[in-house]
Design goal:
With 380 residues, this protein is of the alpha/beta class. It has 2 domains: 5-196, Aldolase class I (TIM Barrel); 205-366, Endonuclease - Pi-scei, Chain A, domain 1 (Beta Complex). Helices cover 19% and strands 38% of the residues. The chain is built from 7 helices and 22 strands. It has helices spanning 15-28, 40-46, 87-97, 111-121, 137-145, 160-168, 184-196; strands at residues 5-9, 32-36, 50-54, 64-67, 102-108, 126-131, 152-157, 176-179, 205-225, 234-240, 243-248, 263-268, 272-275, 278-281, 290-294, 300-322, 325-332, 338-340, 346-348, 357-362, 366-368, 371-373. Strands 9, 10, 11, 12, 13, 14, 15, 16, 17 and 20 form a 10-stranded antiparallel β-sheet that branches. An 8-stranded parallel barrel has the order 1-2-3-4-5-6-7-8, surrounded by 7 helices. Helix 1 links the parallel strand 1 (5-9) and strand 2 (32-36). The two termini are 32 Å apart. It holds the Pfam family DHQS. One of its GO terms (molecular function) is dehydroquinate synthase activity.
Length: 380
């Protein structure tokens, strides 16, 4: 599933007002900012972010040229009886023919504007729609009507609650939301909503431990992320892609070392780690790579690898039974290395024994270059 995008609208008032809103957006991880054409370069000076601009020509230098402000889209000019003959439509087509990425901005005041938006969406790369007194129905209609068109629908919202509704409408939701708010908390919470939108929780099931034994020295991988993890969070790691153990982060205090909530001491170099819909070998991870952080309820969020340390350490084999099958993992033999029990609590492998239950993700399928495939494969 494609990640949802967050836009910030910053076109009213003076540059000082816009600057504060844009800076907060940059710090929060916003994807696009929508400004007036004369502020494109000022935005670029603030940081690396995609810039959309209200314009009617190709001179703004924006990544996305947006038509509709001061035209039919926002109601400044009356709608043409034939949307195809409208000024906004002809401008959008002309800009597209010049090779520009084009967005259409439409304020949905009534059914006629909804129909106008549907026509504009067929000619543009982005369709930015803003409601007046509506919440869902026009968005549902546009999602359904434009599902076969190559356009991304961006819904105008005022807070995180409206963003959540827009991103989940008709299951698919809009491809993104455009927030019109100067409240820094609204910007941060809307970004958080977008990050989790459309990401389904993984199914974690109990597996009964059948063996815990030392296996000697080997190379293990310690994954330091750019993210802080909390109690119950870690990564899914296993010797078989079909069954992966939730290995807890080092977010817990220990009598021996300080907590390192950014770290998962993940396992031996051969093991798989879950990354989105795929898997990677732990030995393949490097700085800047994506990795998936999972909690005890199976909720997922994206993480970034900051550093990977491969070191020779004493190792411990852990085997567990799930649905009549044995799955395995090899972890460093140390008190700070923990799995997660059925109560969502971390349990050290130093305390782990046969009969204990730990949480795993069990798929029962095979993997080919990290992608799940339907084939017979035996991993021992």
């Amino acid at each position: 599933m494609k990640p949802k995008t967050i836009w910030i609208k910053a076109d009213k008032g003076n540059w000082d007002d816009h600057k504060e809103r844009i800076t907060t957006g940059l710090e929060s991880g916003v994807d696009y900012v929508l400004v007036n054409a004369d502020e494109v370069e000022k935005v670029r000076e603030l940081g690396d972010i995609k810039v959309a601009a209200f314009a009617h020509d190709d001179k703004s230098g924006a990544d996305v040229v947006v038509v509709g402000k001061g035209g039919e889209g926002d109601g400044t000019k009356p709608l043409s009886p034939d949307p195809v003959g409208s000024l906004d439509m002809s401008t959008a087509i002309r800009l597209k023919e010049k090779g520009l990425t084009v967005g259409a901005y439409v304020v949905i005041q009534n059914k006629a504007y909804e129909e106008f938006a549907a026509q504009m969406g067929k000619e543009c790369d982005f369709l930015i729609i803003v409601g007046t007194d509506w919440k869902v129905i026009p968005l549902e209609n546009l999602i359904a009507g434009l599902q076969d068109s190559d356009v991304q629908i961006i819904a105008g919202v005022r807070d995180a609650e409206e963003a959540k509704l827009a991103l989940e409408t008709m299951e698919h939701g809009s491809e993104g939301v455009m927030l019109d708010s100067e409240d820094p908390n609204a910007i941060k919470s809307t970004v958080a909503v977008a990050e989790s939108s459309g990401v389904e929780a993984l199914e974690l099931v109990p597996a009964k431990v059948t063996k815990v034994e030392p296996v000697g020295m080997g190379d293990r991988v310690c994954v330091d992320t750019c993210n802080m993890m909390t109690r119950g969070e870690g990564m899914l790691v296993g010797s078989q892609a079909s069954g992966m153990f939730l290995v807890h982060s080092e977010s817990e205090e220990s009598p021996y070392v300080a907590s390192r909530p950014f770290r998962v001491n993940a396992g031996a170099v051969h093991a798989y780690v879950k990354v989105g819909e795929k898997t990677k070998y732990l030995s393949e991870l490097k700085s800047g790579d994506d990795v998936t952080i999972v909690d005890a309820q199976g909720n997922q969020r994206a993480g970034i690898v900051g550093r990977v340390k491969i070191e020779r350490r004493p190792l411990m084999l852990v085997e567990a039974e799930v649905e009549g099958n044995i799955i395995k993992n090899i972890l460093q033999n140390a008190e700070t290395i923990k799995l997660v029990d059925t109560k969502g609590e971390p349990i050290s492998i130093a305390d782990l024994k046969p009969g204990d239950e730990v949480m795993v993700n069990y798929e029962g399928g095979a993997r080919h270059f990290g992608m799940k495939v339907e084939e017979t494969i035996i991993e021992k």
